[in-house]
């Protein structure tokens, strides 16, 4: 769900998917009913999104994502975000974290503009625990911004 929300909020992705409906208008017959052309363009736009979502679901389900879709430990250390799984251990210094977001109860920690560690809502025992983690995460980032 986080990946879908991420794509839905992307202006670049919307512009890419808007190319097909734009082509519908460009190649429409002269004198063709504008309502039919508009409905066709909207359906083409929605079909593009539907196709993308089916591809994303298939890719995540069937792809070789064992390193991405695995249990991880994420800790907030004094100087960095620590991430560990059975395949790797990583430190991401607070100054290098791009942004953090909450979507549908999930927390996304962007380590680059297009790559995030997603912590699902189910990783927390309660909303209170998730809110405490969110507050601590934002405090670490705020303190790091003051250090730069």
In words, what does this structure look like?
The protein has 148 residues and is of the alpha+beta class. The protein is 49% helix and 21% strand. Helix 2 packs across helix 3. The chain is elongated. The two termini are 34 Å apart.
Number of helices: 4
Largest sheet: 3 strands, antiparallel
Q: What is the N-to-C order of secondary-structure elements (H for helix, E for strand)?
A: HHHEEEEEEH
Shape descriptor reads elongated
Radius of gyration: 20 Å
Give the helix/strand layout.
Blueprint: H1 2-8, H2 11-26, H3 34-62, E1 73-76, E2 80-84, E3 89-93, E4 99-103, E5 106-112, E6 115-119, H4 127-147
Antiparallel strand pairs: 1-2, 2-3, 4-5, 5-6
Helix pairs in contact: 2-3
Summarize the structure.
The chain has 148 residues and is of the alpha+beta class. Helix content is 49%, strand content 21%.
Using brief descriptors, characterize the structure shown.
148 residues, 3-stranded antiparallel beta sheet, 21% strand, alpha+beta, 6 strands, 4 helices, elongated
């Amino acid at each position: 769900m986080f990946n879908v929300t991420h794509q839905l909020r992307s202006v670049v992705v919307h512009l890419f998917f808007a190319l097909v409906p734009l082509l519908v208008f460009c190649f429409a017959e002269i004198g063709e009913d504008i309502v039919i052309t508009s409905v066709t363009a909207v359906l083409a736009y929605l079909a593009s999104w539907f196709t993308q979502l089916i591809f994303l679901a298939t890719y995540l389900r069937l792809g070789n994502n064992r390193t991405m879709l695995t249990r991880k430990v994420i800790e907030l250390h004094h100087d960095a975000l620590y991430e560990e799984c059975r395949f790797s251990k990583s430190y991401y210094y607070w100054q290098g974290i791009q942004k953090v977001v909450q979507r549908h109860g999930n927390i996304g920690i962007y380590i680059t503009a297009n790559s995030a560690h997603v912590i699902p809502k189910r990783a927390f025992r309660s909303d209170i625990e998730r809110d405490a983690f969110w507050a601590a995460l934002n405090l670490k980032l705020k303190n790091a911004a003051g250090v730069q």
